[in-house]
Specification:
There is one protein chain. This protein is of the alpha/beta class. Helices cover about 30% and strands about 15% of the residues. It contains 17 helices and 19 strands. It has helices spanning about 5-10, 50-60, 130-135, 145-155, 170-185, 205-215, 235-240, 250-260, 275-280, 285-295, 310-320, 350-360, 375-385, 400-410, 445-450, 470-480, 515-530; strands spanning about 15, 20-25, 30-35, 40-45, 115-120, 160-165, 195-200, 225, 245-250, 270-275, 300-305, 325, 340-345, 365-370, 390-395, 415-420, 430-435, 460-465, 490. The strands form four sheets. It has a seven-stranded parallel β-sheet, sandwiched between helices. A seven-stranded parallel β-sheet has the order 15-16-14-17-18-13-19, with helices on both faces. A hairpin with a 4-residue loop joins strand 3 (about 30-35) and strand 4. Residues about 1-115, about 505-520 and about 530-540 have low confidence and may be disordered.
Amino acid sequence: MPRPHDACGAQPGLRILGLPPAGVFWGKRKRLVIDFVSQSTHVTRTPTLPREQAGARNGARRGGVTEFPKITRGDRCQDGARASGVRGCDPGTNHGRVQKRPARMGHGARCARGYEFMTETFQDLGLPAHLLRALEAQNITTPTPIQSQAIPHALNGRDVMGLAQTGTGKTNAFGLPLVTAMLEMQGKPAPHSVRGLILAPTRELARQIQEQLLLLIKGTPMKVGLVVGGASLNAQANRLARGTDILVATPGRLLDLLDRRALNLAETRFLVLDEADQMLDMGFIHALRKIAALLPEERQTMLFSATMPKQMEEIAQSYLVKPARIQVNPPGKPVEKIEQEVHFIAKGEKLGLLKEMLDGHRDELALVFGRTKHGMEKLAKMLEKAGFAVAAIHGNKSQGQRQRALEAFKTGRVRVLVATDVAARGLDIPEVRHVYNYELPNVPDNYVHRIGRTARAGRDGRAVAFCAPEEMGELKDIQKVMKRDIPVASGTPWEKIMPPQGQGAKPAGGRGKPGGARRAQQRKRSRGNGPARGNKGQAA
């Protein structure tokens, strides 16, 4: 007898949310019940469609096995239900559309009405054996929510728009299907060509993505290139001349190379925009438009972001075609395992409190964030004088200096890393236990990205914020975005002190204008030169 997954296209090990270990697939007049434990199936005729949960329970209790209805990959989703293993199916979506690669994980199977399939392992996603071994070597066994929902769509060739908080595994969510597609492509890339392009807003994030992809392609002839600012343009151009399977780049440096005709994007079939919201914040929207104009129309595009600004919808409409929209957390929501606190403290006392708190965990890694390059460089020097092993990352540092600072921090030679918001995204260092907001960010979303550097890979983390009187506005905006108040550890919220009535009042009329006092003197002078009002007749 055929196995259950042969009938429905699903892989063994799937479970229906809330109803393990059996699955129910609905046809027009038949109900197919699959028991994944005993690997048995049976079909019952249903004159009318009962409620989903009741039907699933009743079907799971029945025994007996009969032959099952034929299900093809090209079947359409009915009533907007979700296809097995997939979220976000639109009514009438044909999962067998323009597929250059075979469907995986039940794509095209008839939808399970009202249920969501969850995957417990990467084997359930239908990834190639090479990638399964690469993940096992990294001790990664269970897909995160963004991975289990995005990978099936990407493997099926659909455009994907994913919204997930930092530290949820977005890199593998697009990296695994991208590498899978590259492994299936024949031959080598042509000179100066790129098969897959990944754009990231910062050098640190781009390098982080490259490092993860190199782990996935280990043992294959694939090539993953990196082009970012702060490095030799000629050297990067020479490496691209031999052709590249996957190129990770920052928009600015990629445009520099395109202007020099060091590469062309005519053969690029895959585009990934990672941390797209930060690219908008950094003003890369015009660069993205120039790059997109050089890409072929027939391509697969994946866009991932931690927040959803209004301009993101414009990008989605411009670059994606009927994307699968996936959201695993509300925008602005930080990781739940992060323990947050705020200290209301004067600006001049912040350094003393920071030293005291850092001294309490000298053996643990800590990130300290501030606003300005000069301010963070000065803070790093003061902490170094206090006896802490410190490194700094900001815009005034060269790429080599940044990389050496990160390597020292990752290996533990440096325990404190002082940085501006250039390090707020892309730093995947699970050992980071503490994040300090020495200065609150001007953009509320950046607070979420900053504290997302801790509590990664399922670990716990701690985020501490220092709030001076002039930063109360930023704190209120941050709490509004997160829709929660940050617990107060010390001090009391600063209140705006209004001057008493009659004291410190601004002169009427404002600065630089003929105020009321001047006009009053003019009226008094005019009354003194002429007859007083009301005394007309007494003047003679």
